[in-house]
Design brief:
The chain is mainly β. It has ten helices and 46 strands. It has a nine-stranded mixed sheet with strand order 1-39-40-42-41-43-44-45-46, with helices on both faces. Strands 31, 32, 33, 34, 35, 36, 37 and 38 form an eight-stranded mixed sheet that branches. Strand 23 and strand 24 form a beta hairpin. The longest helix has 15 residues.
Length: 730
Amino acid sequence: MKIKYWLIGILFLPMALMAQQKDLTLQDLIPGGKNYAKFVPKNLSQLQWNGDAYLYAKGDTVWTSEAPKWKKSVLLTKAGLNEALEAAGQKKVGSLPRFSVPYAGQSLLSFMANKHLYHYDYATKKIVADYTLQPKWENYDFCPENRYLAFTEGNNLKILSPENQVTDVTNETADGIVCGQSVHQNEFGIHKGTFWSPKGSALAFYRMDESMVTEYPIVNIDARCAKVEPRRYPMAGMKSHHVTVGVYQLETGKTIWLKTGTPKEKFLTNISWSPDEQHIYIAELNREQNEMNLVCYSAVTGQKEGVLFTEKDEHYVEPQHPLLFLPNQPDQFIWQSERDGYNHLYLYNTKGELQKQLTKGEWVVMDVLGFDEKGENLFISSTQPSPISSFGPDHGPLSVKTWSLNLKKGKSTCLAKDAVLTGVHNTQLSGSGKYLLDNYSSWDIPRKIVLVDTKKEKEITTLLTAENPYKDYEMPEVERGTIKAADGVTDLNYFLVKPLHMDSTKKYPTIIYVYGGPHAQLVTGGWMGGVSGWDIYMARRGYVVFTVDNRGSANRGHAFESVIHRQLGVNEMADQLKGVEFLKSKPYVDADRIGVHGWSFGGFMTTNLMCSYPDVFKVGVAGGPVIDWSNYEIMYGERYMDKPQENPDGYKNSNLKLKAKNLKGHLLLIHGDIDPVVVWQHSLGFLKACVDANTYPDYFVYPRHEHNVIGKDRPHLHEKITRYFDDYLR
C-alpha cells in the first residue's frame, strides 16, 4: 500500500536534463574510494560554536562570524598557527588540525599535533598551553575547570597537570582489571570511562573486573609467527564482568568507591554529577535488563543515599542518557525515558518526585541540544509532527526537526519554519541559546546550512547551499512509500531504486538490502532518503534495489522495536517477506531472481532469509553475520533474547547452524578476521554446519579488519559483492 499523499508517487532524484552519459564507479560511490569526496554534498568543515560566534575551516584558513552583525572574518591560518608553534619551540603542522573549543566564549582553540595537545589563543596568536603526550596514552578527557587531562595508559588511569606532571589515579597490576575506559560493551549510551565533576575537584571513573570473563582468541597475522591477542568477550548466558565506580579527589589524591553492592552482575550506566559535586547518580540496570533504578550516592563517602525511582518493562529497559540538571535549579533535572512507549522528557526533583512530563505524543525525542541563557527554554531534536503540515511525510522518522520547549508553559515551537519541513535537521545551539546552526537535507536538497534566530524563529542567513553532486549524471528513479507489516496494521517505510533506462516490458533482478535490527534506520528523510552509493551503482547495472525498515528498527517507539524480544528474526523476516510480496506485484521484477544483502544484524537476516525461504531468495551476501545468538555478547544479546537458559526455544529457532541444511541458493559470507563485535566463530561455525549438512556456501575473509571493512579496502568489498550478484543473479 502506498501512502496517500502526493509525495509518494515516483520521485526523481535531481538530474540535469542533458546529463552526459558518464560512468560512476565504486571509487566514486563508496566511502574510502579515491573520488568519493566529490560525490558527497559540500559541507563546512569543523563548523562549531564558540559562544555566539561560529567558526569553520576551509583550506588552510579558519573563518569566524559573530553576533550581532555576522560579518565573516579570518580567525587563523595555517601559516599563522605554524608561526606560533615555531615561536613556542614546537614542530609545524602540515595541514590544519582538528580543533575544539575548550572554554566557551574565550579566544582559545584546542588541537592535537605531533604528540602534543595545544591550546592556541587566536587573539594573541600564541600557544598558551602545551601538554606533552606519550604514544601509549589513550582515552583523553580534558577538564576546562582545572585544566587537567585524564587519560589511560594500558589498563590504568592517570592525569596530566598543566605543568606536564603525571599522577597515577590507579595502579592495577592484576590481569583483567581495567580502569578509566568504557564498559558494558559500549551499550546504554556509554562511550567513555571518565567523568569530571562540574567544578573539576574530582574525577569519577569506571573500574571493570573482567577476570572472570572468557578470553576470546584474536589472531594477529602481521607478526612473523601469528600470535594470539585475546580479548575478554562475555557471551550470552556466561559470566559477565563486574563494574564499580571510583571517585578520585584531586586535593587529597585519594579514591573512594561507590558502594554499589550486589549483585555484582549489573550495569552501571549514565553516570551524572550533581551541580554541587556532592552526589553521583547512576542508572543501575539488572542483568535481566527489565528493571532500572536511578540511584543517588554520596560522592564524598561513597554511601548509597537512596533510589529516586524505578522503571520496569516486560521486555527491556534501556537507559541511554545521563541526568540533565536545569541551569538555575540544581534540585531539578530532566530524564529521558521510553516508559510511555516513546522516548520523552520528564522533569524530576532530586527527591525523585516527578514534577511533570515535558514532551508527549507518538513521536521520539532524538536529541537534547541545550538551554537558553535563563534556562527557561530547552532545545530538542525530535520527530514531532509540525502543526502546519498534517499531510505528507512530515511525521515519524522521515522528519527530524528542531524545537524550542518552554519548560514552564509546556509550549513547543518548531524552529524550521523557513526551511523544508520534511527532511532531517542536524542543529547546533550557540552558547547563549539565541542562535542555531541548522544543517539540513531532504530527498531533493543535498545540504543547506542556515543560521537561525531562536527567539524570532526565523533564518538570519544562509551559510551554504550545496549543489547536487550527481547533477551531471543520469540517475535512476526512486519510488518511496509504505507497505503494511505482517501484522496487517503497521506502515513500514520503503524505497525502491529502479534500473537506469528501465524498459517496462522487461523483468529485472532485484536485491533487497536489509539491516532489520534495533538502533538503525535505513529509510530516512534526508538526502537521497537513505539510498546509498552502492544502490545507485547496482541500479545503473540493471538491478532493482529495495529496502524496507521492518518492525524492530529504530525511531518508531518501544512497541515497534520490542516486537523482536525473545524471537530475533521472526517478525523481522515476516515483514521482509511482505516486501517480497510487494516486489512481486511489480511487473518489472523477476520473481525468480531475488537476492538479499546485509551486514551485522543484516548479515544475520540475510543468512536467515536464505535458509528459511530457500525458494524465494536465489542469492545472498551476508557480511559479519550473527549466526548463533548464544555466541554474541551479553549486553545486547540478552536484552533482546534473555539468557539461553531462560529462552531455549528462542535461541534454537534463531540458530542458523541448525538451518544450514536448508541452503539451496548461492550464499557468500564475508567476515573480518579480527572482528571484536561479531566474532569470527559465527561464520566459521556456519561453514562447519554446512559441511556437515552437505550444503555449499561461499566465503571471503578480510584480514586485519574488524566488524566493518573500512578505508581503501571498502571499494574492494563492494566490488566483491557486486561480482557475486553479477555471477549468480544477473
